[in-house]
Amino acid sequence: MIAPALALARRTLMGAVRRPQFLAPLVIMPTLFLAVNTGGLTRTTGLPGFPDVDSFLDFELAGAIVQSLLLGGVMQGIGTALEIEGGFFDRLVASPIPRVSIVLGRILAGSAIAAVQVVWFLVLGLIFGAQIRAGVPGALLVLVIGVLAGTGFAALGVVLALRARNASTVQGIFPLVFVILLVSSAWFPRELLQAPADWFATYNPLSYIAEGMRDPIISSVSARSALEGVASAAALTTVFVALAVWALRGRLRDA
Fold it and tell me: CA 125, CA 6: separation in Å to the nearest integer?
């Protein structure tokens, strides 16, 4: 099971490298959004209750990472749907490999791409003046949470592709995920959100993922934020990977 999954993940990564038009939006769009927000919302750092940060860039960096990882999930979902439309998925099903390797390969590729996305934004932030106050251990914590979350988002993309079975439907469904991101604390502190946004943010796992990555950037590592971030990312990954396997079995049953 592991060897075929790794082979399929490698194939997916090589395909992504050969077609950079699929990879570029994962970092370009969140980078532009980060630049606009940093330029327009800098003075919000002076609001009462806003965390103690050196700049709004420090605060916003985690939100940009989460947005980029969600786009990574979109890409994996579209890629899976295109394989279904093109018949490659059916050839994989007919091949002598464990069926679960089909979804695990795509998800593992999403994990590798997520690591690149996190490193991109950390380096970008450092270039433009952001500080990671927790140092190298803090950066590693951001990477761990980001890769876990990216794995979960990739699995969600696979779930939607297996259920929708075409790329256009996956593209149409995923904007709803970004609505969920907007009602989290990825872009603004929970303490400064008004009802009902603050209530949604409190129960939104994306809030804890963003805060888990933000904490080592703007302060020393807090055990609570770190554990909440890792736990939320791991929980989403566990649920979505299980759903992806379940969706695969459902598709095989209906075939």
Answer: 32
User: pLDDT tens-digit profile of 147-197?
Assistant: 999 999 999 999 999 988 777 888 787 778 778 888 888 888 888 777 788
Residue position matching structure tokens 């989290």: 184
User: Half-sphere exposure (CA, 13 Å, Cβ side) for 184?
Assistant: 21
234 or 36, greater pLDDT:
234
Which ranges in the chain belong to alpha helices (H)?
2-18, 20-40, 56-86, 88-94, 100-127, 135-164, 167-173, 175-182, 197-202, 205-218, 223-254
Q: Which residue has the tokens 């994989």?
A: 92
Nearest C-alpha neighbor of 226 from the set 144, 154, 161, 159: 144
Note whether 7 and 92 are within 8 A (CB). no
Residue 124's nearest CA partner among 181, 187, 58, 177 is 58
Going by C-alpha positions, the residue among 147, 118, 109 that lies closest to residue 22 is 109
Q: Give residue 191's pLDDT.
A: 81
Longest distance between any two alpha carbons in the chain, whole Å? 61
DSSP state, residue 134 = T
| Gyration radius (Cα) of the chain, Å | 18
pLDDT digit string, tens, across residues 225-238:
899 999 999 999 99
How is residue 55 written in tokens?
Answer: 């700049």
Residue keyed to tokens 């907007």:
182
pTM: 0.92
